[in-house]
Amino acid sequence: MPERARRNTRPRRTLVALCTAALTGVGLVLVPAGSADPAPTLDEVKVQVDELHHKAEQAAELYNAATDELAEIERQLASAEANVERQQAKVAELAADMGGFAAASYRAGGIDPTLSALMASDPGDFLARASVVDAFANQQADQLATVATERRRLEQDKLLANEELGRLTAIEAELAEQQATIEKHLADAQRLLDSLEAEQRAALEAEQAERARAAAAEQASRGGGHENEDLPDVPASGRAQVAVDFALAQLGEPYSYGAEGPDAWDCSGLTMKAWAQAGVSLPRSSSAQIGVGTRVSKSQLQPGDLVFFYSPISHVGIYLGNGEI
User: What are the DSSP E strand ranges found in the chain?
Assistant: First the structure.
């Protein structure tokens, strides 16, 4: 067996929560005396925070892609280790069979069976023994060749298992790196928000509250808005209807990097689960999802289609019709 590191429980979906609406309870950053850098304006802070959130989303999508690769590597590693175990058992069994020649020598009082045949006084007995010894020798030669072949296969299986283990270690390092990147960008964004003066924070919160009211009014005008009300009516065709209905049922739940439900989502987590309800399997990241299905122009979009953003691709949404996502 390869020397596989026994890892402690490792977070497979570390969620970094982000609240993009209310920014209450923030404090002020103490600026060292003599600093010549002017405080950023509210508009500058909003632009910089948006950029940091976008960078965090890009890192999150790289994280999601790595989790897909990690799952495949773990499957291959498990298969390789199972092959090693089977091959070790086969080699052990063949080695046990090889003990037959030694056992025959022991039963002959420690005399080699070939020498015992040569010492036979009766010609007929000699011929009979010689025939048996010849057959047994041929059998032993075949077994030796088989054992050698199986041992080579065992070494190959061990090399493959060790290779997969190395890939596993590398992808886990990448996951940790992307997670650290996400957390850094979010922390930088929060520091910027914390640097706002009280008046600026109040203006930003008022702007966000107005956006939330406008979104709620729009949703209510389409027939949704509360858990006990009907969801917006978005007609779609075939399995797309299932995906659209599932996505709409999640309205109002929080966005969280790396989340794939049931109470929080990121972009590709929602699209993956929505289409899974319709029996369609999608990869975990937006950059991988764009490679599935058929690409169409904007004018050909139908409800349920996936719409991708940025270059490189790092965001995805579900088209609802009438230019809405």
Answer: 16-17, 256-257, 306-309, 315-318
* Closest residue by Cα to residue 294 from 284, 142, 285, 304: 304
Does pTM surpass 0.90?
no
pLDDT attached to residue 72: 87
Instruction: Quote the percentage of the chain above a pLDDT of 70.
Output: 70
Report residue 224: phi and psi, to 5°: -125, -165
pLDDT in the model for residue 211: 84
> Quick count: other Cβ atoms within 10 Å of Cβ 163?
14
Query: What are residue 40's phi and psi, to 5 degrees?
Result: -65, 150
Q: Describe the crossing of helices 267-277 and 42-97 by its angle, rounded to 10 degrees.
A: 60
Instruction: Report d(CA 94, CA 303) in Å as an integer.
Output: 63
On the question of pLDDT at 20 being above 50, the answer is no
State whether residue 255 is helix, strand or coil.
strand
Q: How far apart are CA 294 and CA 223, in angstroms?
A: 32
* Confidence tier at 42 by pLDDT (50, 70, 90): confident
Residue 75 CA, chain-centre distance (Å), reads 11
- Measure the N-to-C terminal CA separation of the chain; round to a whole number of Å: 51
**Average pLDDT over the chain, rounded to an integer:** 77
